[in-house]
Amino acid sequence: MRTQVAIIGAGPAGLLLGQLLQNAGISNVIVERRSGDYVLSRIRAGVLEEGTTRLLREAKVGQRMDAEGMVHHGVQIAFMDQIRRVDLERYADGKSVMVYGQTEVTRDLMEARAKAGAVSLYEIPDVSIHNVETDHPSLQFTVNGEKEILECDYIAGCDGFHGISRHAIPSEIRGEYEKVYPFGWLGVLSETPPVSSELIYGAHSKGFFLCSMRSLTRSRYYLEVPLTEKVEHWSDDRFWTELCSRMPESTASQLVSGPSIEKSIAPLRSFVVEPMQYGRLFLVGDAAHIVPPTGAKGLNLAASDVNYLFRILEKVYHAGRTDLLPRYSGLALDRIWKSQRFSWWMTSMLHRLSANPFDHRVQLAELDYFTGSDEGLRTLARNYVGLPYQDVG
User: Fold this and answer.
1) Catalytic site includes residue 177
2) Which member of 100, 181, 201, 221 is catalytic?
3) Is 388 among the domain residues?
4) Catalytic annotation present for 267
């Protein structure tokens, strides 16, 4: 087999890159170790920056998002039994965010790829990467019991934190930076109307909470819990009772509870690998970085990586600009580290990182400043809606 760009991983990063390349006349093959049904079953975030929505429209997969997604012009911060609204339009130069589930983004991309007749190989568990330091990189794997070699010009590693791509960069070159947080998020998905028309991020002496949504009839709620907690110890009744105890009374009285349709505990970490390229291999999305979900940056950072790699490859193939290839890692990492800082800051400001009463009072003072002053609101809003993309040159 032969293609121009081989993509490892059929999550939203790999699918979005593949769709953009396909539309630009650049051939690509996606190789995924899981089944398509498994990829679609993963419950993930759903807050999209404007840069991400523009990229999805450019990829010609934004029709359903624009029809069914919910544009949010503000976000709410709860603490000390009060709620303060961050007016995104006012403090972020008219920008907003879109609430549209990652599962739906993935579905739209899968359908578009199938319609275009582009090649996606699922349930390929034995992919290996070869010769990325040469002009003839390749992937090797087994299809229907037969060994296959996929020759290509470039490889995009979009296979997530647990994938193989990152480890193809030699350890003496690869630098990894990580922070593991001492808590997780217990999340519940329910077929209930959201408690608020906008997301509510909450700080409480018992721990963080988040009121989010997937649609006008489907809600997603989270509680900060110790890493020692087990999801089976949390009945629906226990979850709703604990959530209400952390909410302002005015919000708790509006909550509609119901049976959970999904419940899980996710640990939180910050992680970055540098560089994000080695020879003709480029890391994209979770293969290169993980952010705590507090700042809603995970999917959006993956889209940012896709934007930079696509722009560069488009100019390589259409204008012969191979000089741009070394720019990918620097461009991507500049935005990644700024988003890492924001996600770490939001996590630190809203969670119980310490039992020290002094630290708790400092958190409250910080929340008061950043939700109660024009300077603070501007900083929060502009980072939340997403920093602008740079020109690749």
Assistant:
1) no
2) 201
3) no
4) no
